[in-house]
Specification:
The protein is an alpha/beta fold and about 325 residues long. It folds into 2 domains: about 200 residues, P-loop containing nucleotide triphosphate hydrolases (Rossmann fold); about 60 residues, Alpha-Beta Plaits (2-Layer Sandwich), CATH 3.30.70. It is built from 11 helices and 13 strands.
Length: about 325
């Protein structure tokens, strides 16, 4: 069953520019110069129930614009959007009862009242029964460890405490679909680990579908098997996270630590091999090839140079994504 079905989705914005000088300002009163920019450009995708999908890209790639169209905040310029069997914009009142949304830089909690009072107000808004609220939220409050925070005003909470409460607030009505837009921005490692653990639990227990946008690649690696990579409003990759590494950069990094100083002239060279020097005795080779190519490289280097240590590392997801944007690669 597809929870999200998007076909040829496009969102355009007008970017106005002002003319210079007094005469230009006067002309702007009657006619304005503008350009039409496509923040999201003809994207299509489907998401199945229970999937955890990482929706990633650079600033301005169109991530938040897509999320706002999927949640009914923005109306698409063209294309079709069906989420939970509904049109998010046209059936908004019924639709919002089926989703939860957390924006890392916006709050849905009331600033000056206690957290538990915000929860009670949201319970009324979503028409959640006392029984359902107690059964579900008891588990959420315990897992996120926010019990001691419930009687405190939101303005008295730290960023990490507030974000855990924001996540709990988004789940009061136990939605089948959860949108998370930069939910761990600015948080310390311990809070991130708690949030990741909790998201895994609700995904396993309730089959909650989760769409996660973030610049923290470790969040994606910890939670998502599937990633959708966006660049200039277009999808350049949609598939398994582990397959991204194979498709984008076929190879591994081999770090050699030598006993003595080594010159580049003494190291093997080939079109599929790239060397980087860390210091006088440490070199890193990026090998575009399979395990046999790595084995041959190590054998050739050891025969010619005394080795202190060798480490083989998979190329990181962050490095892969950096290369995709720098080189403008289209990944299939």
């Amino acid at each position: 069953m597809n929870v999200i079905e998007v076909q040829d989705l496009r969102k355009e914005f007008k970017s106005y520019s002002s003319r210079s000088g007094l005469s230009g300002a006067f002309r702007d009163l009657f006619t304005r110069n503008y350009k039409v920019l496509a923040a999201v450009d003809q994207i299509s995708l489907t998401v199945k129930q229970g999937e955890m999908v990482g929706y990633i890209g650079e600033n301005g790639a169109g991530k938040s614009t897509t999320i706002k169209m999927l949640t009914g905040i923005l109306t698409p310029t063209s294309g079709s959007v069906v989420v939970n069997g509904m049109n998010p914009h046209k059936e908004r009142e019924q639709f919002v009862r089926t989703i939860g949304v957390v924006f890392g830089q916006r709050s849905q909690l009331w600033w000056d009242i206690a957290v538990q009072e915000s929860f009670r107000l949201l319970k009324k808004v979503y028409r959640v029964s006392d029984e359902d609220y107690n059964n579900h939220m008891g588990h959420v409050i315990e897992t996120l460890e926010i019990g001691p925070l419930l009687d405190k005003p939101v303005r008295k909470l730290s960023l990490g405490q507030r974000m855990r409460c924001e996540l709990a607030a988004a789940l009061i009505h136990n939605p089948s679909l959860l949108f998370l837009d930069e939910p761990t921005i600015g948080l310390d490692v311990l809070v991130k680990l708690k949030i990741r653990k909790f998201l895994k639990e609700i995904n396993e227990q309730y089959k909650t579908t989760i769409i996660l946008t973030t610049h923290d690649i470790t969040d994606i690696e910890a939670l998502c098997e599937r990633v959708v990579l966006l660049d200039e409003g277009k999808i350049v990759y949609d598939g398994k996270l582990n397959q991204l590494q194979i498709n984008a950069v076929e190879g591994k990094q081999v770090e050699f630590e030598f006993l003595t100083e080594v010159l580049s002239a003494t190291l093997p060279s080939s079109p599929k091999l790239h060397w980087e020097q860390k210091d006088a005795t440490t070199w890193t080779a990026t090998v575009n090839g399979d395990e046999q190519a790595v084995s041959e490289l190590i054998s050739n280097v050891i025969q010619k140079n005394p080795i202190k240590n060798v480490r083989i590392n998979e190329i990181s997801t962050e490095e892969i994504i950096r290369k995709i944007y720098e080189e403008g690669m289209a990944i299939s």
